[in-house]
Each structure stands twice: as C-alpha cells, then as structure tokens.
C-alpha cells in the first residue's frame, strides 16, 4: 500500500488549497483536519474528499474564503452563520469558541447554520479533549436514511461524536454516523462492485438489500439499531437546524455535498464543550477517564476475543503508526489524491 508522511500530506493539501486561492490560514485548518482524519484511519472522511470540495467551490456551491460569523452570543453560547464556508473551517472555529466559553463559564455551546460537510465529527470533539474538556459534536446532513416503517429516505444519518481526555491514549472518543455505517462506505462498495451486508441499506420498497448498485438513486441507509438510531438522528436535528433556525435534514433544504456541487450544502453543526474542572478540580477528569478506560480494557474477554478496546483507541493506534511509518493510503484515496495532484499540477509526495 502507498504511504505518505503526515506532514507531507498536510503540505500537499495546503498547496492545493492555496493554489485554488484559499487564504493560507484557512488552508492550514482544512488540511490539518483532513490529514489527521486519514492518520486516524478514517479514510472515508479525510483527504479523499478534498478534490470534491474544490470542485464544489468551483461550481459555486461552497465559498472557499468565507468564514463563519457570530450572529448572537451570550457568556456560554453563540449562534454562528457558516456563510457557506468550508465545513472544516466552521468546525474548528465553532469548537474553539465553545471551548473558550466553557473555560469561562463551565460549559460552552456553539451552533452553526449554513455550513458545509465537515468530514469526521470526532476531530472537533478532540479539540475539546486536547484542552482537558469533554467535547460533544453533532451535524445534520442531507436525507439519506429511512425511519422504521418508511419506504425511502426520511432524514440524515446525522453524525455524533464525543471525546474526553485520558492518559494512556490522548482521549476516549466515539465518532459515528447514526446509520449502521457511513454512506461513503456504501458508495465505495458500489464503486468496487461488491455486495454489502443486508443491514446497511434498504431498497426502493423499504426492504433490506445486499445490492448497493442502486443507492443513492433508490433506497436509503438503515438507522443504527433501528428505532434507537432513528430517535437519536431526530435529536441531532433538534439541537442543530430546529434549534438554530437553519435547515433540518427533513426540510428539503440540505443538498448532497457529493451530488449537488453547484448548490450550498446548508448543513448545521452544534459543538458543546464542558470544563469538568469546575466540578472535580483541575486535571482530575483525565485520571477519572483513564480509570474508566482501564476498567473496560481489563473486563473478562468473550471466548475467542483477543482484546477489548475503548472508543477511539483503534484510531489512536492508527495515528501513532501513521506518525512512525507514514499514513497507509488505500487505493480509492490514492486515486482521488492523484486526480487532485494532476488537476493542480503539484506533486503527490507518496512513497513505497
Ligand atoms: N460529516 C458528515 O456529514 C458525516 C456523515 C456521516 C458520517 N460521518 C463520519 O463518518 C465516519 C465513520 O462513521 P461510522 O458510523 O462508519 O463509524 P464506525 O462504525 O466505523 O465507528 C467508528 C467509531 O467506533 C469506535 N469503535 C470501532 N470499533 C470499536 C471497538 N471494537 N471497540 C470500541 N470502539 C470501537 C471507533 O473508535 C470510532 O469511534 C465518522 O468519522 C463520522 O463522523 C460524517
């Protein structure tokens, strides 16, 4: 498998974005988020998508140099307009502001409307954990998931992530879509001509199928754990678009960031940071999270099980390996990066 050093991949993305005309400080934010996501091993939401974001900006569906702005705020909250800026820029600025407010008041909530696809939600939750806080992040997305009993797409598979600082790993963090899998995994199986488990999508009649070849034109993603994933996705819409006056995944105002390049994506995000030092004292949270993690890892194992992971542990192991050996780049990501390199006339710093 091809490999690229983390810093080299980041510089490649910065070069591509600056060549496209993005301000250096915004290019650095975007490149850092996407590269770290690949280093975690979450390749479906990393640098693979950069070429598509650039194409979207060219088609008029995303404003490369826009930045989110505060519309209303109080000591512990803010409402921001994303101004159709790059989703990564909205994500980083939103969570940084939530953390700033939390450090003053104990809790900070920032909600953003009119944003774009921000990639992996876990990146932003980890901004809070790096500052010793608990981070919670949600985003609504275009409708791609069904509701129990519904025939077709009803609402988004609205991702949700949390992170808390620990000691043996930088954080305990969960980063998931509320469908059984993220839709980009279905696109990948379709592109590779592979069948999928019958728990991933439903067909045009609302019935489970193993054939991804008609998705997304027909059918919908299945909610994670049936009514539970569905109910949580409704909650995400409540604390994003419903609550902040922006688009909801059911409103018909969120267009696919992959398929509708010329239209604003219009998604909403909400970022919550909690400064637990206000409750239990400075630096205590990481130790208590670590104690919990150790308890989980040392549980009696099921027959045949080698190991019990804490949420996020697999990603941190991938990250450490990427730091040591470079990021292993899957074929689909490599293909997309090569396309970007050719388009921008810059060299892809790949080795192996
Ligand atoms: N921006 C968007 O519009 C959007 C939409 C959907 C999904 N996404 C992103 O897609 C990505 C993938 O989502 P997904 O639902 O396919 O994730 P997934 O099912 O691969 O689950 C990943 C999470 O589960 C944890 N995990 C996995 N195996 C584990 C184990 N054995 N023990 C403990 N924890 C374990 C991981 O640490 C990680 O936190 C996420 O980064 C999500 O934010 C983004």
Automatic annotation (TrEMBL):
Coiled-coil spans in chain: none
Any one GO molecular function term: oxidoreductase activity
Sorted UniProt keywords: Oxidoreductase
Top-level lineage group: Bacteria
Pfam families in the record: Ldh_2
Similarity comment: family membership: Belongs to the LDH2/MDH2 oxidoreductase family.
Protein name: Malate/lactate/ureidoglycolate dehydrogenase, LDH2 family
The organism of origin for this protein: Thermoclostridium caenicola
